[in-house]
Amino acid sequence: MNTKLTELYQQILLDIGEDPQRNGLLDTPQRAAKAMRFLTQGYEQQLDDIVNDAVFDSDTDEMVIVQNIELYSMCEHHMLPFIGQCHIAYLPRGKVLGLSKFARIVDMYARRLQIQENLTKQIAEAVQQVTGAAGVAVIVEAKHMCMMMRGVEKQNSKMKSSVMLGTFRKDVKTRNEFLMLLGR
Ligand SMILES: Nc1nc2c(ncn2[C@@H]2O[C@H](COP(=O)(O)OP(=O)(O)OP(=O)(O)O)[C@@H](O)[C@H]2O)c(=O)[nH]1
Ligand SMILES: [Zn+2]
Fold it and tell me: Using CA positions, which residue lies closest to atom 19 of ligand 1?
């Protein structure tokens, strides 16, 4: 498969002083292109397809939390990975979302070039949109390779970002209940 992206990776190898013809690198441009397509496949996905009508009627209005969803994204400044976890809570209002769909929503937005703040907001707004919930809370905690492998080279710092919508934003008690259930 000789796509444009494959050719560009060949060029990168030359540019960094490598020999794309040496044995170990022969298939590398193609592999790297395939990996990059995978890591950015979120651009080709739509929320409706991801959710696939897995929104079910329910009369519960109690808080639901999906915790520790792994997250692999890439920062839009350096195109280096940031890796962490996402926690999502919502207050259903007549509808609940299929459990796996929270992880699919996280992946859809994570597999794009992102900054963590925007990623957090996009996940929260998507959950709000598909569930019509009374409130949505999202926390993302992640380590950024651009801060670890290069730049300031800090190995232990972690970024935490949160977005609170609806009741989670307006009502301190609800927010505190969420944080308590998360173990914060
Ligand atoms: N707020 C935010 N900043 C991020 C995120 N990912 C990377 N950054 C930051 O984006 C900034 C880009 O800063 P620049 O000064 O333009 O780039 P740089 O010279 O490579 O910066 P250094 O990383 O400080 O070496 C850096 O401070 C990064 O740490 C993110 O998800 N959110
Ligand atoms: Zn970065």
Answer: 151
CA pseudo-torsion sign 177, 65, 40, 74: positive
Catalytic annotation, residues = 75-78, 116, 144, 146
- Is 86 annotated to bind a ligand? Reply is no
44-82 pLDDT per residue, tens: 999 999 999 999 999 999 999 999 999 999 999 999 999
In the numeric block, the tokens 């957090």 are attached to: 120
User: Looking at the DSSP assignment, which residues form a beta bridge with residue 65?
Assistant: 89
* Ligand 1 centre distance from Cα of residue 69 (Å): 24
Is 146 near ligand 1, meaning CB less than 6 Å away? yes
- At 146-159, the pLDDT tens digits run 999 999 999 999 99
Per-residue HEC secondary structure of the chain comes to CCCHHHHHHHHHHHHCCCCCCCHHHCCHHHHHHHHHHHHCHHHHCCHHHHHCCCEEECCCCCCEEEEEEEEEEEECCCCCEEEEEEEEEEECCCEEECHHHHHHHHHHHHCCEECHHHHHHHHHHHHHHHHCCCEEEEEEEEEEHHHHCCCCCCCCCCEEEEEEEEHHHHCHHHHHHHHHHHCC
